[in-house]
């Protein structure tokens, strides 16, 4: 039997049982759709995260207190760790300790809201250096100016606010020179940032920056920092700068065993590797779940094909009686199984692409501050088609072999 004739015969066999074939195909469609959707969202998430990280610049280094968290439960512990203090920053600023640093600024996270008269808004509040912020992000006030190092030294009550904060508190009124309240302390607005949206996981439009010394002394009553942000001379200098930072801080903290570090250093390269590793591991895990679904669908294909073999016993006997070989019979039923799964795979690719696009659209619509883009991995489409065809080959083989071994005489007698 030539392949063209066998394919036509298989198509007729599949078409003869439309409802049964449709239900069989549905299981494959669900499995392949899951593969496409999973890989598309995974690629989109990875691209989003790497894009956000890229906004920081490869020369950025972040020092955080506490031991490096091994899981989500330990991340909160680093927020309350108190191992980074002013003496550490002063030691890092000395050129003989860390010559690769060109700028450094501590960061203090201030929980709470801001208010003006009867209006209240809950923004992201950082105690930071406004000069470092503008150098880091290249974002300069649209109105007013920034506070400087003198304000930090004098613990001035001044604030740089985002446009959303201005809109919520002042509406169309002038914000510069007005006093907002943070934890019952008045802060004079000196500058308003332009609209910028999400940058490096921070919504710049909902940001309030005050001097970190003011935040420590008057709002939080602490003498430590939540993190210290460092800018290296160049991306090539990051590795050596990280080494010098670690050596300096261990000396300051009297640490000789690196396993007992009470700080950890984060770089763009390190985070990128972690993100890729996490998404890769998550993809493998989800793939195993999808694989189980495809195995179940494959068992369904086998079951349907076995029923079909039984129902078409007389047909098999008749074909053998007029000259069909065991190979011809086996190829016909094997092709039928592969057509079912192949069609399911192609439909699954189309449906998966549609749902992936829909998911990307909805994420972009409801989380407009995220730069989420639709990503359709061609490799996933190829993988989906190969996997679906392979499922048909594997799970269709036993019914095909069983059909080919039927005796023509017994098959013709079958009622």
Automatic annotation (TrEMBL):
Q: How does it sit in the membrane?
A: Multi-pass membrane protein
- GO: which molecular function terms? transmembrane transporter activity
Entries under InterPro entries matching the protein: ABC3_permease_C (IPR003838), MacB_PCD (IPR025857), Macrolide_Exporter_MacB (IPR050250)
The MacB-like periplasmic core domain sits at: 21-243
Q: Where in the cell is it found?
A: Cell membrane
> Is Hydrolase one of the keywords UniProt gives this record?
no
Entry keyword set: Cell membrane, Membrane, Transmembrane, Transmembrane helix
Domain ABC3 transporter permease C-terminal, by residue range, is 288-408
Q: Where are the transmembrane segments?
A: 21-41, 278-309, 337-368, 374-398
Q: Which organism is it from?
A: Candidatus Ryanbacteria bacterium RIFCSPHIGHO2_01_45_13
User: What protein name applies here?
Assistant: Multidrug ABC transporter substrate-binding protein
Q: Which family does it belong to?
A: Belongs to the ABC-4 integral membrane protein family.
* Primary location group: membrane
Of the GO CC terms on this record, one is: plasma membrane
Q: Does the keyword Plastid apply?
A: no
